[in-house]
Each structure stands twice: as structure tokens, then as C-alpha cells.
Amino acid sequence: METQLWQTIKALEPLLPQYVSVTYGAGGSTRDATFETVRRIVDQTHLRPAAHLTCVGHGRKDIAQLLERYWEAGVRHIIALRGDLPAGGAATPPDGLAYAADLVAFIKTIADFEVSVAAYPEMHPQAQSATADLDNLKRKLDAGATRAITQYFFDSTAFLKFLERARRAGISTPIVPGILPVTNFAQVVKFSAMCGTSVPDWLKELFEGLDDDQDTRKLMAAMVATEQCRSLQAEGVTDFHFYTLNRADLTLGICRRMGLKPAPLPEKNDFADAPTPVQRDPEMPD
Q1: 42-59: pLDDT as tens digits
Q2: Of 55, 150, 170, 285, which cross-links 103 as Cys (Cβ 3.0–4.6 Å)?
Q3: pTM of the model
């Protein structure tokens, strides 16, 4: 998997995306491995990594130490998430942070990171209502986030309606649609049920009978994602966040169809002149 990861990174690098996100292990199980991956991206590529950071199960001191390590490594972008609640366990330590909005505000006390947060066009599955979900997004943005990245969706109308509601609520921050090329339909159905994404009947019909036909599945996946991007582009959407799932081929094909081709790599990014972190409160509890 590590070999595949770096093959994917090197394949996508010539596209020069604005950032590349690196997911974070639930409960910190892969925290060190994630940090090393992010640091290696900074050191060995032209990409700007955005490191996922969850607050569930971690105290302020642990989070602060990790943020300081990221800053020292040259990472300037954090994707702040609450994280999945553990089954039967205490979600928040006594000195912990319960919500993503709290995490965003805390990140800003450590250093002037760029911070992205999550948004849910079809509502977070644990939200009491669509209005409450939108209010929570606004709290995260008001806490200092500069961008919202949405959960993936297949109904573009749902995203556009969500975007309209957000603008009416006074949210002017960029909201970037999350695009997921479907490589394994059965897995997508399972995960969609957990994250609140609707799977339309037309998508089910497209992938029906293709379980053992990988080549045709890939063609369908690229076609669906490209059409989704083009339909959103026609409505004025200019930025997209691709969930690559550690694969480069589909994203490369979609980007090329959208007119984005690999470019010559520039000189390496230099973070040497970046500001120093904000000093932590010495009274911060351990």
C-alpha cells in the first residue's frame, strides 16, 4: 500500500493541485505514520499537503504537540475534523475538544495554519436537522476555517441547493464539492449508508452486472465523475476535491477531460520565511 501511495503521489504531482489531503487514522492508530507521510510529501515533492486532524480521543496537549511538529516540518494546511466517536468509549478527555469548531479555534492559537473543514450537502447523519447542520458549519468557519470541503455526493442538485442555502445564511467562504469516482459500487453503497450520501437508482443501474468487469467499471466511473464536474462547472463551480482513494488513473483521466493537463514541475516550495508558531499558553492543562 505504501508503494501504491507514492506511485499515486508521483503520478498526480504534475497536475500541481492546490493541495493534497492526507487522511488521519481513527483514534490515532496511524498518527505517526500519517505524520511521516506528510513530512515526506513536503520534503520530496512539489505538493502542498493538507493533513487531516481529528480531535476525538485526544487532549489539547497532544494536539498542540502534533500541530507544532507539522509546522516545524513545513506543513501549513490542516483539515480539522471531529472524527468518529468511539464505540462505548469516552469521546473527549478532560482537557479535550468535543467539536470541530473547537478544534479550529484551538489550531489558530498554535499557529496561523490554513484550515479546511467538512460540509455535508445531504446533512451529517448525526445532525438534528439541516438547519442545525448548517449552523454547525458556520461555527467552524467563524472559528477561523478558510474553506469547507464537502462529503462526496452524486446528486449535483443537492449540492447546488446546499450552496444556495449556505449563501443565504451568510456563508461566503469557499465550499468545495467532494467528487468520488466509483471504483467499487458495493463499497460505495455501504459507506454512503453510514455517511448520509444518497445513491441514486441511475447509478445503481449503470454499475449493475459489472462486479467482474473492472475495465468497464473504470470507464463508467470516469464518465460519471466527469459529467458531474462538468455539470457543476456549468453552474459556476471552479474548484473540485477528488477523493482518489490512493489511485491516480481515474483522477488523471477526469482532469484531462476537464482540460487540466500535467505541467512542468517548478522549483521546490520554500517555507523558510514562514512565520513562527503562536506560543501556547503555559497554563494549558496536561
Answers
A1: 999 999 999 999 887 778
A2: 55
A3: 0.88
